[in-house]
UniProtKB/TrEMBL annotation:
Belongs to the MIP/aquaporin (TC 1.A.8) family. Its main location: membrane. GO terms for cellular component: membrane. The chain crosses the membrane at residues 6-27, 39-64, 84-104, 125-143, 193-215. It is found in: Membrane. Keywords: Membrane, Transmembrane, Transmembrane helix, Transport. It is a multi-pass membrane protein. It comes from the Bacteria. One of its GO terms (molecular function) is channel activity. This is Aquaporin family protein. It comes from Tritonibacter litoralis.
Length: 218
């Protein structure tokens, strides 16, 4: 396995979580209880970071930063299965390190467990299927029509999906796990993580069937 690719995936996922958690902490502090304003700041910061890390690291590792995306590429045969495990492991490690770095930056306890209890229920689980399927849709649609636009497509999609999905679009098992380690605005109670990930993986299965048909080369 290419160490450069693993470093890119780990560092990129760490920066992604820094943007998610850091902007959440800053937004919650400055918004003074205005949840809509905090979510807007959180979404914009995350979208900006996604554009930056996909643009810079895409040529190195493919810029997955997401086990669901890596699984989708592996199912298509575009990522060797021998590389899939290392990709997922480094994405999870990078995500957790990004969360800890954020806590340090904002002078919080580095080791935390989220107590955010509202991220559960059938509607939010279904929301994660929609969010993850939509993410794969813009990635593989972009690869089919305009590969150079993928950083913009993903950034815009996630920025919007923060608002039009009830779960605020986690759409990423590594992000979901890492956010369980932060008792902040962007956290998720650890007991709710498993079902989010199950829904994300279901979306990968749906996407593998539907998107291969939709974006098949004529």
């Amino acid at each position: 396995m290419n160490a450069q690719k693993l470093l890119a995936e780990g560092l990129g996922t760490a920066f992604l979580l820094i943007s998610v958690i850091g902007s959440g902490i800053m937004a919650e502090t400055l918004a003074q209880g205005n949840v809509a304003l905090a979510l807007l700041a959180n979404a914009i910061a995350t979208g900006c970071m996604l554009f930056a890390i996909i643009t810079t690291l895409g040529p190195i590792s493919g810029a997955h930063f997401n086990p669901a995306v890596s699984l989708a590429f592996a199912l298509r045969g575009d990522l060797p299965w021998k590389d899939f495990g290392p990709y997922v492991l480094i994405q999870i490690i990078g995500g957790i390190l990004g969360v800890w770095a954020c806590h340090w930056m904002f002078d919080q306890s580095i080791l935390q467990t989220s107590a955010t209890m509202h991220r559960t229920g059938v509607s939010q689980w279904f929301s994660e299927i929609v969010a993850t399927f939509g993410l794969l849709f813009v990635i593989f649609g972009g690869l089919r029509s305009k590969p150079e636009a993928i950083p913009t497509l993903v950034a815009l999609y996630i920025t919007g999906a923060y608002w039009y999905t009830s779960s605020t679009s986690f759409a990423n098992p590594a992000v979901t796990i890492a956010r369980g380690f932060s008792d902040t605005f962007a956290g998720i109670y650890p007991g709710h993580i498993v079902m989010f990930i199950v829904m994300q993986l279901i979306a990968v299965g749906i996407g593998h069937v539907v998107l291969r048909i939709l974006f098949a080369e004529e």
